TrEMBL record:
Molecular function GO labels: DNA binding
Gene3D superfamilies: lambda repressor-like DNA-binding domains
Protein name: Transcriptional regulator
Domain of life where this protein originates: Bacteria
Xref: InterPro entries: Cro/C1-type_HTH, Lambda_DNA-bd_dom_sf
HTH cro/C1-type domain location: 17-71
Pfam family, one: HTH_3
Length: 87
């Protein structure tokens, strides 16, 4: 599993969650039960669906043993609200 690398998209985030779940030997149903979310929601997150609720995503990350780190970026365009480098 990748560690200490930035996540630049919802798809990358979902892939990290899937990798962590699989490394624990859990099916989607087992992991969803442990996390207290539905298997459909977990499946959508792992596939990178962008409408997932952030609170539930954070719960999945926590139960997967993954930490969230917010890093500041010193990029010329990042000073403008509404602009995203991930679009």
């Amino acid at each position: 599993m990748k560690k200490q690398e930035p996540i630049h998209s919802v798809a990358e985030l979902g892939a990290r969650i899937r990798e962590a779940r699989q490394s624990q030997g859990l099916t989607q149903q087992e992991f969803a039960d442990v996390c207290g979310v539905g298997v459909r929601f977990l499946s959508e997150v792992e596939r990178g669906k962008e409408s997932a609720e952030i609170g539930l995503v954070l719960r999945l990350l926590s139960r997967a043993g993954l930490d969230v780190m917010v890093l500041g970026r010193h990029h010329e365009q990042s000073r403008y609200w509404g602009e995203s480098r991930y679009e």
